[in-house]
Q: What sequence folds into this?
């Protein structure tokens, strides 16, 4: 991500609008993702500690409609259903 401190984008998919935005603050990455009705998405959250990622204020792997997948180096990965998700992750 370099010196970029925030980003926002949206795209119209086959099932509706998909939105994503994030910002960095105080050593954390805050990411919001919106997935349209009747769709699923794989979310990759950049982080320095995949096991410490939260969604909606609880550990992400315990959050409703969130399934933890095998993480990639530097990323936590999750499978989610339709809805809005708010991830917070350590990021230095």
A:
């Amino acid at each position: 991500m370099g010196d970029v401190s925030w980003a926002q984008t949206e795209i119209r998919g086959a099932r509706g609008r998909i939105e994503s935005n994030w910002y960095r603050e105080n050593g954390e990455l805050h990411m919001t993702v919106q997935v349209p009705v009747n769709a699923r998405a794989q979310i990759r959250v950049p982080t320095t500690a995949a096991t410490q990622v939260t969604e909606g204020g609880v550990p992400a792997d315990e959050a409703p409609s969130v399934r933890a997948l095998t993480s990639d180096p530097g990323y936590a990965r999750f499978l989610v259903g339709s809805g809005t998700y708010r991830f917070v992750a350590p990021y230095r």
